[in-house]
Amino acid sequence: MASGTRPLAVVACLFTAVQLLLVVPGSGIGWDEAVYASQVSPYVPAAFFSAPRARGITFLAAPAAALSQDPIALRLWFALLSGGALFGSFRVWLTILRPAVVVTAAGLFASLWITLLYGSQAMPNLWVAYGAVVAVACFLLPPSRRTHTGLAAALALVALMRPSDAFWLALPLAAAALAARTPVRLLPLAAGVGLGALPWVVEAYLRYGGLAARLHRAGEIQGGFSGQFAFGAQLRAMSGRTLCRPCSDVAWGRPELALWWFALPVAVAAGIAVARGRRRPLVLATAAAVSVSVPYLFLIGYAAPRFLLPAYALLALPAAQALVHATRTWPRPAAAALAVALAGHLAVQYAVLHRAADRYRDVRTAYARTAAELQRHGVRPPCTVSGHEAVRVAYALGCSSRQVGGHDGSIDADGLRAMACGRPVVLLMSGGAPPPAFARAWRPHGLSPLPGTRSLHAYLPLACAGPGDRGDPALIRQDGDCKTFGVTPDHGRCIDDQQQRDRDRRAV
Hints:
single chain, two-stranded parallel ribbon, globular
């Protein structure tokens, strides 16, 4: 057993235990998670899968998604899986750096609120981070069939999760291979990126009209890939926001929560400076971290803390080198002050994690309540949800989700109205916004508001409608279609309760 293996295993177990205690209990599902999990769930129809997404995380989610629709199943599965992956990825570094540095690096990365929050989520970024840590380590180890295979496999994992991240990760490694005059290293780099990205490329031709078309559409959805500066957005997101889009109207009210972000470059520079004989591995890890950060800091105009998880995992290595060196060489008062600063850092991470985890618990309660309210209005599988937060509401109900227009547009108004002929259909509108023209004749029902909304209304069709209908009662296939929506069948048409009362009064 390599030196440092047991302490590293302890760090991984603690990482998993904190997730199980603080994050997993009562946690609801995120919007992206619902999209990914629905692709492999036997309980929920697959949500619209937009051009930027890759299916790697759906493969990891499949075992838990196959067992249950409950988000807790995903949380438990990924908490255990991420703990094992933390151990496995940093263990490769035990033969490159001193064990104390590797164990400290794993502890630093695992203690971030971002890592703890996403450890139990069906999201790709943490797995990109693990793949990046392994890829850089395998590149640094002496060339052999084993290290080449490990390098290719790690890059394939990254590309399977996020193809663009694999490209940015491979760039500094390819440059290092050329600088060291070891072009043989380019083969596993190319093989790993190519194999991992292959499913995404194949899907581009099958569903999007080609690779160029998919890349163009992905750029549109992400706001375009151009010279932008997202440092400010990332800083605002350090307070615990999982997505900051847009960030221009978000006040930076808690700057102390981002102090560690400013301390990290200092620690990285110090770690490289004191590394001496182990400087090259730390320089390459830092270069790879900078490279994978480029698209999220300079090419898109919004921020999510999870985007930088691969960078944090790699930068934890030189930062750990600085900390280990300081504890061994600094005078006791200075070392004690450093320990106090680290304790404060951990307290900040816990505070942000606690608030973020509470929000996910609120999400679970809110969406379960909304699903129950819609079920009382007759919305049950097979059914379709459209409009505000359709993906997560549909996941809670076991319905499909379809949007008319927008980035996730997968149906038109005529198609949605026609769908009501064979199943319950509901349109959700938030904040008092009026329904679109095609749903103005639909019956509104007030619902309890979801997090972040002032009000929520469900609009249900009074009748099923064929293409071209603009709101008049339409022919139905059977009386049951009317009963599904709580209205009355009348000679092949659906009429609501008020219309029925008017008819009864006239008959008298």
